[in-house]
């Protein structure tokens, strides 16, 4: 297991893209779904789940991360080899690694919010709740993710490399109930650049 995990770390090339957009307005789509419009981009967030998640948000951080095609090639190799145990271990290691990359990207959004005196909630991805997967192409375009990260989409909105994550994080003037009550257990803990200054993102 250690050797398989080490191989995953060796071939992985974590990379990410992050941008912040002001909330331009809220409304309804022609079909009656709640819609959150972001300034300076074609990206809109549609659905009751994301409307609840972003209620009161003044800005939104948008992120995409991947650990690269090296991991993708290894996953395919394990699939061809039919080595189920090593393949499962490698897949689990890759999933953990891309989630840690997403944690790092989220931490940068938390820091950007704190620098503006704002608070954040947690990341929310297309496919969660009723935020449609059709959000993916516009979200990736807003981050120039194909050119910068090599992320492409299938006709069914699945990403390649498969070990990639996209998400949005709300920024608010008031502290959010979903914010971690302490630094312990926060997914951004290892990547936090605020804590060493003696402050926290909780103010």
Describe this structure in words.
- It is a single chain.
- The chain has 6 helices and 8 strands.
- It is an alpha+beta fold and 203 residues long.
- A 6-stranded antiparallel beta sheet has the order 3-2-1-4-8-5. Strands 6-7 form a two-stranded antiparallel ribbon.
- Strand 6 and strand 7 form a beta hairpin.
- Helix 1 crosses helix 4.
- The N and C termini lie far apart (41 Å).
| Main sheet overview | 6 strands, antiparallel
How far from one another are the termini? 41 Å
**DSSP strand count:** 8
Sequence of secondary-structure elements: HEEEHEHHEHHEEE
Q: Tell me roughly what share of residues is in helical segments.
A: 25-40%
Rounded mean pLDDT is 92
Number of helices, where a helix is a run of at least 4 consecutive DSSP H or I residues? 6
Radius of gyration: 18 Å
Name the overall outline. globular
Structural class: alpha+beta
For the largest sheet, list the strands in their spatial order. Answer: 3-2-1-4-8-5
């Amino acid at each position: 297991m250690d050797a398989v995990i080490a191989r995953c770390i060796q071939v992985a090339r974590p990379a990410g893209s992050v941008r912040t957009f002001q909330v331009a307005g809220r409304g309804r789509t022609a079909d009656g779904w709640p819609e959150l419009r972001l300034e300076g981009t074609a990206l809109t967030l549609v659905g009751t789940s994301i409307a609840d998640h972003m209620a009161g948000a003044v800005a939104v951080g948008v992120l995409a991360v991947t650990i690269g095609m090296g991991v993708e090639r290894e996953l395919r190799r394990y699939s061809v080899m039919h080595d189920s145990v090593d393949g499962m271990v490698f897949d689990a290691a890759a999933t953990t690694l891309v989630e840690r990359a997403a944690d790092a990207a989220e931490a940068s959004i938390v820091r950007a919010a704190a620098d503006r005196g704002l608070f954040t909630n947690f990341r929310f991805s297309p496919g969660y709740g009723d935020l449609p997967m059709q959000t993916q192409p516009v979200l990736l375009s807003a981050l120039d993710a194909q050119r910068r990260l090599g992320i492409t989409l299938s006709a069914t909105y699945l990403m390649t490399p498969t070990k990639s994550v996209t998400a949005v994080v709300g920024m608010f003037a008031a502290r959010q109930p979903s914010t971690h009550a302490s630094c312990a257990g926060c997914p951004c803990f290892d990547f936090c650049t605020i804590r060493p200054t003696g402050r926290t993102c909780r103010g």
